[in-house]
């Protein structure tokens, strides 16, 4: 004869239901925690991607702007070659003489000590005009400088940090004339 368990009593039945509900509650809490964690990871990933997109979009806009300047028929390119003081230095000035805008493309300029900066000069009727100072660019080689309506030549010197009111000719690094 086979054994048949006694029919459940109300108390045992209630304990079984409580145990099952408690187990379901624990499983549900674990799932909610995992979903919460995954949601936070996705939010962070979305934030990171948004920042990368904005950075790429900004860079693309900058490249498009630079390409427009370079391809503009009013833009004159003046190549600056190294001098005896710095024979390997080189740069180019992109000068939109109609808009007076001056941009500097640094090609090869040595690193300077922290108390010095490069300074771009426009030579106008034989007199130097300050077009701004710059440090050795690490990632940005297309620099917006001060505007000038007129220039016969451009030169780069090394000056004390902050620039000088007149160029130190012994420290001239590069020089280029318009039309060369």
Provide the fold topology:
Blueprint: H1 10-71, E1 75-83, E2 86-96, E3 101-108, E4 116-124, E5 127-134, E6 142-145, E7 153-160, E8 172-177
Antiparallel strand pairs: 1-2, 1-8, 2-3, 3-6, 4-5, 4-7, 7-8
Written account of the structure:
The chain has 180 residues and is an alpha+beta fold. It has 2 domains: 8-71; 75-177, Immunoglobulin-like (Sandwich), CATH 2.60.40. It contains 1 helix and 8 strands. The chain has an 8-stranded antiparallel sheet. A hairpin with a 4-residue loop joins β2 and β3 (101-108). The radius of gyration is 35 Å and the shape is rod-shaped. 17% of the residues are buried.
Instruction: Return the string of H and E elements.
Output: HEEEEEEEE
Q: Indicate the overall shape.
A: rod-shaped
- Tally of individual domains: 2
What amount of the residues lies in strands?
Answer: 35-45%
Structural class: alpha+beta
| The CATH topology of the largest domain | Immunoglobulin-like
CATH architecture group name of the largest domain: Sandwich
The largest β sheet comes out as: 8 strands, antiparallel
* CA distance, first residue to last residue: 115 Å
Low-confidence spans: none
Helix content: 25-40%
Number of helices: 1
User: Within the largest sheet, what's the order of strands?
Assistant: 5-4-7-8-1-2-3-6
Q: Radius of gyration in whole Å, from Cα?
A: 35 Å
How many strand units?
8
Q: What's the overall average pLDDT, rounded?
A: 88
Can you identify the CATH class of the largest domain? Mainly Beta
